[in-house]
Amino acid sequence: MTGDVSADRLRAELSEVENDLANVRRTAADIRASIGEVQDPTDLGSLIQAAAEQDSLADRFADRRDDLLRRLAAAEGR
Fold it and tell me: Would you say 65 and 24 are in contact if contact means Cβ atoms under 8 Å apart?
């Protein structure tokens, strides 16, 4: 075993990361949509923080996706 990850495995992981990224972005959008409905300042702050946390998570998924795309290209000889 060479330690290299197969292109099929990278594609599977990429698909999972892309699904996770889409879900996190959807969650962040849902949180933002509910911000206008909140009256309590504490709840508002919590929602804003939750949206920011989802954005941060989305950034990490996007970085992971970019890494997987580079690795997949290398594995496929591109």
Answer: no
Q: Where are the domains of the chain?
A: 7-75
| Predicted model pTM | 0.85
Q: Encoding tokens for residue 76?
A: 């496929």
Distances (CA, A) of 4 to 10, 12, 55, 66, 72: 10, 15, 31, 18, 11
Length of the chain: 78
- Considering only 11-20, 33-42, 52-61, which range has the smallest mean pLDDT? 33-42
Assigned token pair, 54: 């989802």
Sign of CA dihedral 49, 52, 58, 64: negative
